[in-house]
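Chapter summary example: a protein plus 3,4-dihydroxybenzoic acid.
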Amino acid sequence: MARITASVYTSHVPAIGAALDLGKTQEPYWQPVFQGYEFGKQWMKDNKPDVVFLVYNDHATAFSLEMIPTFAIGTAAEFQPADEGWGPRPVPKVIGHPDLASHIAQSVIQQDFDLTIVNKMDVDHGLTVPLSLMCGQPEAWPCPVIPFAVNVVQYPVPSGRRCYNLGQAIRKAVESFDEDLNVHIWGTGGMSHQLQGPRAGLINKDFDNAFLDKLINDPEAAASIPHIDYVREAGSEGIELVMWLIARGAMADVAGGAKPKVAQRFYHVPASNTAVGHLILENS
Ligand code: DHB
Ligand code: FE
């Protein structure tokens, strides 16, 4: 049977990808950001998963105002890095896991979450920057990745509670897959940031750190945060944080198991316009 053994949480920022691709990681501005991921890169090598289920958001790259799936699962054999205006990032293509992805689609849809099934999609910085932060610059990503895109760009967006419940359904789906697979689930995006309007540049360290505390120790309370609080407290793009609740909902303690171990916690401001947060939680 397949098992979710750990969850990883990290912000994404396109400028982080550019800093890495252009060899700027040791510049004073970027060095502390990348330093915060040294532990995670080693941890990935020491705890190599068979598959990463990567929850992220597309930024009007694969989708647009023409088509807005709330939850979309990538079932293809591979996914190309997207061209977001400067050419595709020079990173490996993403190899999918069609068998596990189709099984999760079947199981989660039968648990009453209506997923969109995507057989062709390019993946933008929302997916490739977290992979770069956790894996560095390899020739190929260390394992297959199932992209799971959440609409947090065009209103209406799903609530944190819905995301948390969906995470629980994903855990059940993974555990009903016959093959022995070690699966990690990643929740990405956030933390506080606002890219537009009079409050552009907003960062809220108190909210972010309280969110990290809640996510670790009281995920029910984190799942209860209403949509408007994210927008007020963490800025219009801070709503990306609801994706972290999908990964957290898939952890064992939510289903009555033991509390996860906190292997890594990191927080840094600034990276571009965003507060960078990063956690690694391990199931025991
Ligand atoms: C930035 C952050 C994002 O989440 C994003 O999608 C684009 C830009 C930024 O901080 O610049
Ligand atoms: Fe974003």
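Key point: Residues 160-175 form the longest helix (16 residues).
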